[in-house]
Design goal:
Distance between the termini: 11 Å
CATH architecture of the largest domain: Roll
Shape: rod-shaped
Helix content: 10-25%
Strand content: 15-25%
Order of helices and strands: HEHHEEEEHEEEHEEHEEEHEEHEHH
Largest sheet: 6 strands, mixed
Mean pLDDT: 78
CATH class of the largest domain: Alpha Beta
């Protein structure tokens, strides 16, 4: 079989044109940021790659927190009453004020104080009590409410002894959603509620929960709480107190995926491990760069930031490149792409232009 030189030159020219139109970003282009030791050291840590180009080291879905910090919460103190709370009020020696009858203990005929009656603070923060009238108790502690009620009753009774306790806490609530066993409302009682306590009261986290991306929405801002990083950094997450109206969400790990494609042996979507996945791990879990068609000099990470899409490039041909890849931490929704080698692009273009002709030509030249 004879193949003319012109027949071979024509596909080469067409392949070169096609490769130029559909090529990966060139290493020297200004929009491509090379992954170097200087880039990783710019902010003093493995996560600095995202920060070095003007973006923050924290994924854009979180606001106002570094990866190992906790949002400021309320200061621990006495519980303050609010609308909806149910109070038990007892005025000793005056059972008629609560409409209760003294309880006979039977044995010695003695009587104890009456059972406490229930009173609800209305939506305006007011509570109405016999002889005392309406009192504004919302925002007061139990001791302040007791003193205020005793002062009102002192107009009609000599040195009244008043006891105020909370029968049902209904004014302050937090909301739990996501990967917990029992999502829903949780009432804050007289013991300040921490993040870990709220999660435990909801039955704990499910196996598919991402402990590194728990969010607390407060005051219109969404704060990220990384329990793994907090414990690793010596900061106990129990120090985070929740406030009324907080929304706590424990996301699933499936929301924190990294996509690996291009010239790798097994393109796939990878789930991050407690919020952490390096470029080296991503390439390894995808089977590595294809030795037949992959260009180790063009490994790209495409990332969406508030400033727009950013493209990072790793030249994986030197041996030290694996150390750089291990230090480059990926963000959720990052896309890792390995470009094809020039020879692979040429072969594919020829195969598209002349299906079956290239293999026939190769077979003809190798035939005895």
């Amino acid at each position: 079989m004879h193949i003319s030189i012109s027949l071979l030159l024509l596909p080469l020219c067409l392949a070169g044109c096609a490769a130029d139109l559909h090529r990966a970003p060139a290493p020297g282009e200004p929009d491509v940021i090379p992954i170097t030791e200087e880039l990783l050291a710019a902010r003093g840590g493995p996560a600095a790659a995202g920060a070095a180009a003007g973006s923050t080291a924290m994924p854009p879905s979180t606001v106002g927190l570094a990866a190992d910090s906790l949002p400021a919460g309320p200061v621990a103190g006495p519980y303050r009453l609010g609308a909806g709370d149910v109070l038990a009020i007892t005025v000793w020696d005056h059972p008629e004020l609560t409409g209760a009858v003294a309880r006979d203990q039977g044995g010695d005929g003695g009587a104890l104080g009456p059972p406490a009656a229930s009173f609800v603070i209305d939506q305006d923060g007011m509570l109405e009590f016999p002889f005392a009238g309406k009192l504004h108790l919302a925002g007061h502690t139990r001791e302040q409410a007791r003193s205020l009620l005793a002062a009102r009753l002192a107009r009609y009774f000599r040195a009244p002894r008043v006891t105020v306790s909370v029968q049902a806490y209904r004014s302050q609530r937090v909301y739990l959603d996501g990967e917990v066993k029992a999502p829903g409302l949780l009432a804050i009682n007289d013991i300040p509620m921490t993040l870990l306590e709220a999660i435990n009261r909801a039955g704990g986290m499910l196996p598919g929960a991402d402990q590194s991306r728990i969010t607390v929405e407060r005051g219109g801002q969404r704060h990220r709480v990384d329990l793994v990083a907090a414990l690793r950094g010596g900061r106990h997450p129990a120090a985070l107190l929740l406030a009324d109206g907080d929304i706590v969400r424990v996301p699933p790990r499936d929301e924190s995926k990294v996509f690996v494609g291009g010239e790798v042996l097994a393109p796939r979507a990878l789930t991050m491990h407690d919020g952490r996945l390096t470029l080296n791990e991503a390439l390894g879990e995808a089977g590595g760069i294809s030795p037949q068609s992959g260009d180790a000099g063009q490994v790209y990470v495409v990332r969406h930031t508030p400033q727009g899409a950013r493209v990072y490039r790793l030249d994986a041909r030197p041996a030290r490149a694996m150390a750089l890849a291990e230090q480059f931490e990926l963000w959720p929704r990052d896309v890792v792409y390995v470009a094809a080698s020039p020879l692979a692009n040429w072969h594919r273009t020829i195969s598209q232009l002349f299906p079956g002709e290239l293999s026939s030509a190769v077979g003809a030249t190798t035939r005895p």
